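Good morning N.,

You mentioned wanting to compare the apo and holo forms, so I went ahead and generated the holo version with BV8. This is what I fed in:
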Amino acid sequence: MTSALNARVVILTGAGISAESGLRTFRAADGLWENHRVEDVATPQAFQRNPDLVYRFYNERRRSLATVQPNAAHLALARLEQAWSGDFLLVTQNVDDLHDRAGSRNLLHMHGELLKAQCLACRADMVWPGDMDRDSPCPICGHGPVRPHIVWFGEMPLEMDRIYQALDRCDLFLAIGTSGHVYPAAGFVEAVGPRARTLELNLEPSLAASAFLERRIGKATELVPAFVEELLG
Ligand code: BV8
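and this is what came out, ligand included:
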């Protein structure tokens, strides 16, 4: 029963849910930033080779968070979670804080968060709202250096066991605003149980579209509130 309010729901979001808030998606900019391919900046190798470039990349994106707001899609998911009595897990690939600011609680940032840092000396991670550079001291151990608390390409996403357990048990898996380019997230739809209802809400069919039982094409700020109303009946 996927419409009963006690059903188990897992939702995966990608850059497309934040697009109408004004945050550029990876694909739309054909993955470019200052003429660098994102895949070439968001890697441990890039950080090793040119840390100042990588610090700058994340400082710019962290600063841009102050200029954007959650949109109707973020708010609808927070409303759904509030009204839901069954298991509810929102897994986001996004490193922005728009789901957090919209009020989502059972929220898992599988690729890390722009507003957090990790100390390379003591390994602690911490909230980091401002700019960061190679001389920023760690507020925990006093040493550092600190790096963005971001999962780079070639690094293991966070809390994968918890995600796969939720996928295996869920009755409804919903993917919103993700192109299906990046693994392991793009493979989540294949990891749901045999009885789960699977639905993709996206501006265009994703690379994983054929693996979903249902697909709706359109903007997240239109599709998501409408689907939430449907679910809450
Ligand atoms: C891993 C943080 C294994 C960074 C991100 C070779 C070497 C190494 C690894 C690989 C390799 N080949 C493949 C891999 C795996 C690799 C990968 O998938 N690469 C891709 C490029 C082929 N994956 C990894 O490396 C992952 N780790 O595999 O580890 C491992 C195993 C053992 C031990 C150690 C490791 C880690 C991947 C995480 C990378 N970090 N983010 C940062 O943000 O700076 S990924 C980053 O890109 C985003 O977080 C996001 O996940 C991804 C972009 O995807 P989307 O969110 O889908 O965004 P996109 O722009 O692509 O699509 C937007 C969609 O929205 C579009 O479809 C569009 O139509 C739609 N849309 C637009 N507007 C709207 C809309 N929809 C609705 N409404 C709208 N208004």
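The CA atoms of residues 146 and 194 lie 43 Å apart.

Happy to go through it together on a call whenever suits you.

Best,
F.
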